[in-house]
Amino acid sequence: MFEYFPKNYVWNLALNLAMEMGAKIGELDEMCRPLLEVSQRGDDEGTRLFLQSWERMGDKLIGQAREDEANGRLISAGNKLGRAAIYLLIAERMQARDYEPRKALYAKFQDCFQRGVKLAHENCERVEIPYEGAHLAGLYVRAEGVSGPAPILVQVNGLDSTKEMLYRVGLPGHLAKRGISSLCLDQPGTGEALRLHGLTARYDSEAWASKVVDYLETREDIDPKRIGLQGVSLGGYYAPRAVAFEPRFALGAVWGANHNWGEVQLARLNREGERPVPHYWEHVQWVWGTGSMDEFMALIPKITLDGVLDRIRVPFLVTHGEQDRQIPLKYAHQTYEGLTNSPDRELKIFTDKEGGVQHSSVDNSAYGLDYISDWVAERLGGHTA
Question: What is the Cα–Cα distance from 337 to 34, expressed in whole angstroms?
């Protein structure tokens, strides 16, 4: 993993996420160099300065995009807004849940992302799926070169990611070239669902996943018999759970196994394992909608795949980074071993040979993108050549 900030995993994770989404190294250096000293005081302290530096770069790119638009250079404007959105999203993600400026920052990020996609004519369409009096927002990417209903892979977030992060890391583009559509989703507990609608996470992920399948079955451009579900990070819990209880999914996959997330939280209380965001315990209570640590600790025993996976009777892929510092490798083996009734199960550990050895391959997604998209295409009726 690229470790710009000495001894600060959380800030380095943020920087690596930005790089995987398309950040430019010169812009990253301009944002991060002023933060080197404060970064050494810990990952919670200095997050407001982090926001200021990263938002400053976002505003700089927004200004450049405005100049491009004035000159009719709309594609270039869209590209710059796309990078601005990356920096604004990373800055927002790092803040404490109740830090008031993050609300305006999230709105600015959303505006940049949506205008950037439109101006750059990207293969990306916003969709809204009715759910509990509100909606779940998603980004729909169409399969390329497909006539008639296409297969689709639904992609869900982890603890702190968003649909835009899933889209920018690039799996939807890889799948589109292989004849597979994508839906990147802000499920309850993430992205818009949490920030704008107050929809918190739930351990029974099939409750919202089934509503997504209901929606996809209404679309004439989707083959209802070829709907897959993939999760990243904590999605490595959500996706297997949903596939186990929603039989309409044709396959499942995880990019980072998360067999017993509750157990991992107990280890973190003992300072075992890295955290993904600053202000971690505030963040997890926000995500899960608990009012205290006692309430949160009472919930976490439910967040396990023990006794669940034997219900899965479709192909399933488990991938994990060999050097994952957040979720130990043993949990990937536990998930794989639990898939006793899957007719086509596979465990792929990313090692130094391939790269992508850290959590959900945040250090290098290239090999994982190829591997997962090929595996899915081969089983959902896409193509790999």
Answer: 47
